[in-house]
Amino acid sequence: MTSPINVEGGGASVVIDGPPGPEAKSEAVTLTGRSPGQLMWIRFKRDRTGVICAVVVIGYFVVAVLAPLLVKLTGTDPYTLYGQDPTYADKPLLDEFGLPLGYLGGVSGDHWFGVEPQYGRDLYAMLLYGMRTSLLMALGITVLVMVTGVVVGLIGGYFGGRTDYWIGRGTDFFLSFPQQLFFIAFMPVVTSFFVDPREETPTYFRALAMLIVLWLLGWMGMARLVRSTVLSLREREFVEAAKVSGASPWRIVRKEILPNVVTPILVQFTYQLPSTILSIAFLSFAGVGFVEPTPDWGRLFAAGAKYAEQDPAFMFFPGVALVIFVLCFNLLGDSVRDAFDPKSGR
Fold first, then answer.
1. Which whole number is the average pLDDT over 135-139?
2. Gap between the Cα atoms of 70 and 64, Å rounded
3. Residue 23 pLDDT > 60, yes or no?
4. Which of 42, 145, 180, 187 is a good FRET partner for 172, with 20 to 30 A between their CA atoms?
5. pTM here?
6. How far apart are alpha carbons 117 and 297 in whole angstroms?
7. Whole-angstrom Cα distance, residue 132 to residue 68?
8. How far is CA 105 from CA 124, 190, 312, in A?
9. Closest CA to 218 of 144, 151, 152
10. Dmax over Cα atoms in the chain, in whole Å?
C-alpha cells in the first residue's frame, strides 16, 4: 500500500491506493488549511463571555433601530405629557407634588418603566428613543474617527520623514486641547456661527455640531496606534519584497500593511464606541448636547439628577441599561483581542 501526499493550492491531498485488482479503490482525503480569519472566529466562538456580550450588544442596536415599533407595544411615545394632558385625566399618574403614583416611579401595565416626575412622560419610550439617538450618533462618530485615524496613521507611518514629522505635530496640536472643557466651551461657539442666538437651535444641527467636535478631537489615539504598528511593519521582509517587485505604495499599503493592522483597529473600535456614547451623554448632561424634548441617554441622567431625592427610581432603568451596554462592549473588545492574539489571554 502506498500513500503519496500531494500539496496543491494550499491544501494537502492524501491518496491511499488499495490492493491491485478489478475492484481496487482509491480514497482521496483533502486537508484544507484555515485562514487567520477562520481561526479567529473559531477561537471567538469558544469564548462564552465574548459570545454573550456580542449578542447583548447586537440586541441593543436592534432595539435602537426598532424603537418606534417596540414603543407601540405600550401605546406610548416619548413626547406626550401624560401627567398634564387632560385626555388622560381619568388615569392620574402624578400626585399633587408632581411625583409618580405607585411603586418604582409609577411602573404599571401602561407605563412599563414608570413616568417622569412633573410631566408624566413615559420612561420606557424615552429610554428606547434615547438609546436610538445615542447609539446611532455614537456609531457614526466612531466610524469617522476610525477612518480618519487609520488614514492619518497609515500615511505617517509608511512614508515617514517630513510627512510623519508634520503629521505628528498636527496630532500633538489636537491632543493639547482639554477635551471635556473644550466640548463645553466650543459647542455653543459652533452653533452660534450658523444659528441666530434668538432662535431655537434645530436638533439636527446640534447633532451635526456634536459630530464635528467629537470627530475633530477623537481621531488622534487611533492615528498614533496605527502609525506605531505601520512603523514596525514597513521594514518587514514581505513589504521589502513587494517594493522590489515594483508594487506601488498604494498597493503595498492596501495589500501588505492594512491587513496586518486590522486587529488593533477592531479592538480599538470596541473601546472607542462606548467611550463616544459616554461623551455624548456628558454633553447632554452638561446642557450643550441634546435638549428638550429630544430623548437622549445623557438628558435622562440630567433629568434624573434633578429628581434623585424625590424619585430615585427614575435613574434606575437608564443607569442599568447604560452600565450593561458599556460593560458588554468592553468585554467584547477583550474577547476580540484574545481571539486575534491567543498569547495575550486575560
1. 92
2. 9
3. no
4. 187
5. 0.80
6. 17
7. 9
8. 12, 38, 8
9. 144
10. 100
